[in-house]
Write a structure and sequence with these properties.
Length: 485
């Protein structure tokens, strides 16, 4: 095998690992430069649930991704289908039709082939039963276009990819922070890392966005974003993006936008790999109130996969940047594991009055009135079905709930205090269909490629769940193959 080309991959998450594996498969000698120590490797990917959004045409494609899918699982599950047109339109719609059409077309087209390639690299995919299906009439009904996850979640994903990369001879250097790129706006020939120059035939940037940079968050996202908790890696500070800008790379995408979610108010300020699942994304099954005791959005406007990524920004705008998700016994029994993690800011009582007394800082009278008004506005005639947009709604409220509305009436009553948790930022570098970084003149910068969360132009306003890992894999694989020559 020809090992003449030397490729440097900056980062060690899903996108970086896919790039490294792809380059090594195509004959290159690959070195990964990971800013974090070995014990914190994996970037943001390690903090995810490992869900991938992909095109699939029913159970036959699911069986290709999950070859050990049992007959019982097939017969007891309705996987539905998610075609290329729907995927493309979701990316268009959630971006307000601003997403880069070339990039999203490539993402959609290559989603299933890339996941099948990852399967062949040793990544084990499973149906996402725990978070993406509800049991209705004895069958697991998948919803929201998101069906597949990796065994072991994000940690399982990166561990599997590391095993494959190491088997291919990829060298991984930890505690290696890239300080600048060597070259100019026309050609890149290496990096400066830990004070030393490393030369290479090509450099692939896959070190994440700037979500962990407090100053940049305020600069680009706006006032108050310094108060957000960081869901994932503390090492994603945008230094690699800045290094590319310093030699003339072009900025692209939604720099004032980000993926942010309802996050447990008691969580650490930075992601803790030992305490995952601090997000609280099943607000669709209850109501959410702020400290004034008021609801402030339609919790049932769409499946959570299409709305959850803007909820962090929504709660950050509320008084004190905090609020509470409210459920009763009907809903708590179908909440997923993220509502059962230790140290959660969880409050429970057998009456709504007793629950209100436990919610420090809330306007108790207003809260009780909000719940009473909500309960009386629910259309009890419509059947509740969490696996479809069931049309079970309220009528006559200042903000109605469009789907999955049920009176909060069966004790015990539970509240989870939530704040903003930022996942990833949307602004980044401009790339072309070969994942080559563009300069400010719109020309490819020879020898410089990018993949993952530091690529701009894919997401604006909202984000369809699972698209991030898929795009990282798709463009990482492309970057690795092209860079290897």
């Amino acid at each position: 095998m020809n090992k003449s080309r030397h490729i440097l991959v900056v980062g060690a998450g899903n996108a970086a690992l896919c790039a490294a594996i792809s380059a090594a498969e195509n004959g290159a000698r690959v070195t990964m430069l990971e800013r974090a120590p070995a014990g914190a490797r994996g970037g943001n990917s390690a903090f995810t649930g490992g869900c991938f959004r992909t095109v699939y045409d029913g159970v036959e494609d699911i069986k290709k991704l999950v070859p050990d899918l049992t007959e019982e699982e097939q017969s007891s599950s309705d996987f539905g289908r998610y075609d290329a047109e729907k995927y493309y339109l979701d990316l268009c719609d959630l971006s307000g039709y601003r997403a880069d059409p070339v990039l999203i077309d490539l993402l959609v087209e290559q989603s299933l082939p890339t996941l099948l390639w990852m399967r062949d690299q040793g990544v084990r995919f499973l149906p996402a039963y725990g978070r993406q299906s509800f049991k209705v009439d004895g069958r697991n009904i998948f919803w929201g276009g998101l069906t597949i996850e990796t065994a072991g979640g994000g940690i399982g994903l990166v561990d599997a990819l590391f095993r494959r990369a190491e088997a291919l001879g990829v060298e991984v250097l930890y505690d290696h922070k890239v300080e600048r790129l060597l070259g100019d706006r026309h050609h890149v020939r290496g990096v400066m890392v830990n004070g030393e120059e490393l030369l290479a035939d090509a450099v692939i940037l896959a070190a994440g966005g700037f979500h962990a940079n407090t100053e940049w968050r305020v600069r680009y996202l706006g006032q108050g974003w310094d108060l957000a908790k960081v869901r994932g890696s503390r090492y994603n500070t945008g230094n690699v993006i800045q290094a590319a800008f310093d030699i003339g790379a072009r900025s692209h995408g939604n720099w004032s936008g980000c993926h942010s979610v309802f996050f447990d108010a008691g969580a650490d300020d930075f992601g803790n790999i030992a305490v995952l699942n601090q997000q609280k994304n099943y607000f669709t099954l209850g109501i959410v109130v702020n400290s004034d005791g008021q609801r402030f959005f339609d919790e049932g406007s769409d499946f959570r996969n299409y709305t959850y990524s803007k909820m962090g920004a929504a709660i950050l705008k509320q008084p004190g940047g905090t609020g509470w998700q409210i459920f009763d016994a009907q809903s708590t029994k179908i909440l997923p594991d993220e509502y059962r993690v230790p140290r959660a800011a969880r409050f429970e009582a057998n009456t709504l009055e007793a629950l209100a007394a436990k919610l420090e800082g809330i306007d108790k009278e207003a809260f009780l009135k909000t719940v009473a008004d909500f309960n009386s506005a629910v259309d009890e005639a419509a059947l509740f079905n969490p696996a479809v947009k069931d049309g079970r709604r309220t009528s006559g409220l200042a903000i109605d709930k469009s789907n999955w509305a049920r009176a909060i009436s069966e004790p015990p009553f539970v509240a989870y205090q939530v704040t903003c948790g930022i996942t990833l930022t949307y602004g980044g570098l401009a790339i072309d269909e070969q994942a080559c970084v563009q300069n400010e003149e719109g020309e490819p910068m020879a020898g410089l490629y990018a993949a993952g969360e530091l690529v701009g132009g894919l997401y604006y306003d909202r984000y369809p769940g699972g698209a991030g890992l898929t795009s990282g894999s798709v463009f990482g694989r492309i970057a690795g193959a092209i860079a290897a020559g």
